[in-house]
Specification:
334 residues, alpha+beta, D-Maltodextrin-Binding Protein, domain 2, three-stranded antiparallel sheet, 11 strands, globular, ABC_Gly_betaine_transp_sub-bd
């Protein structure tokens, strides 16, 4: 998505920042996105920037499109900790080229993961269900709970970008011909609820889901192999478009998930910027953290404080010894 020269340029800024004269971090606005992993990450950034780098950081509400647009056009907020860039790649590319945005680093080192999934307990009984051919052959094993004459495929909630991609792949795979009905779960809670109920009853389930999420941290699921590999170009130019007339089968490519900052912030606070370039989670780490959040009904702030107290093994790799000493002191005062 991003040219090597663009990424090299912004990463060079992070690499050389430790040699730059420290400047006042000042006020920092951090986008608090409306999903758990992003809200958690925003609160971690607020705690570390305030207590480790002397920033005056605050959270403001955010979402992918309005936040990225505001950062390019208005220079605020300063940081978007978890930006799923597939949906706004052209805007972010323009922001980088115009030197308005900096790509700090990968907030999710594995990238976001999407796919069609079935429970592991089903695959343990019948390994063929790990493939789309096996799922289609055994479509009757996935009855729609409201009409068992058809099989159920749980799609992405209406209004989400993934509703388009899941719908196009449902069409490309000819799942309707195999007897499946595309079910709109209505919301993220509806989708996760359908999977949770099935898993707790060891019942069948087949549908779209993504990682990192609490659900995939709690329940072992198997991503169904379409046998197609990844066609990145077709995915971006057709599968993700509601105007796609002839969708072809492709696995979901990993979604690049970056920490994005304004270039002004990167220049004004190079040491704080260097931290945002290092702060990264694996999907396995984030799945477990999100499962903890759900089990404890924790909001982003509570989860961030718990993370700082109990996961020094992760966050201490992002900061130097002096900053770590300041953070240790702040943690002791929680």
């Amino acid at each position: 998505m991003y040219t090597k020269s663009l990424i090299a340029g912004v990463l060079t800024l992070a690499a050389t920042s430790s040699f730059a004269a420290a400047s006042s971090c000042g006020k920092v606005q951090i986008a608090d996105m409306n999903w758990n992993s992003a809200s958690f990450m925003a609160n971690v950034d607020k705690f570390i920037l305030n207590n480790g780098y002397g920033c005056d950081a605050e959270l403001i509400p955010g979402d992918t499109m309005p936040t990225s647009t505001s950062m390019v056009e208005k220079g605020q907020p300063d940081i978007a900790p978890e930006m799923w860039t597939n949906a706004v790649s052209e805007l972010i590319d323009r922001g980088v080229k115009e030197k308005r945005l900096s790509i700090a680093g990968k907030s999710l080192s594995d990238g976001g993961e999407e796919g069609f999934w079935v429970p592991k307990y089903m695959v343990d009984k019948d390994p063929s269900l790990a493939t789309i051919q096996g799922v289609m052959k055994h479509a009757k094993e996935f009855p729609n709970p409201e009409n068992d004459a058809v099989s159920a495929f749980y799609g992405c909630p209406a209004g989400w970008g993934c509703q388009i991609s899941a719908g196009n792949l449902f069409k490309a795979l000819h799942l309707e011909d195999a007897g499946f009905e595309l079910i709109d779960p209505g919301s993220a809670a509806g989708l996760s609820g359908s999977l949770s109920r099935a898993y707790e009853r060891k019942a069948p389930w087949f549908g779209y889901y993504w990682a990192p999420t609490a659900i995939l941290g709690k329940y072992e699921m198997v991503k169904v192999d379409f046998g197609s590999g990844i066609n990145q170009e077709h995915y971006m130019n057709c599968i993700t478009k509601d105007s796609c007339l002839d969708p072809k089968v492709t696995m979901y490519p990993p979604s690049p998930v970056y920490s994005i900052t304004t270039t002004e912030f990167a220049k004004r606070a190079p040491q704080a910027y260097a931290y945002t370039a290092k702060r990264s989670f694996t999907n396995a780490q984030m799945n477990k953290l999100l499962a903890w959040m759900e089990d404890n009904q924790a909001d982003g702030q509570y989860a961030a404080e718990n993370f700082m107290m109990n996961h020094e093994d992760i966050w201490s790799k992002w900061v130097n010894k002096d900053v770590k000493a300041k953070l240790d002191k702040a943690i002791n005062n929680l």
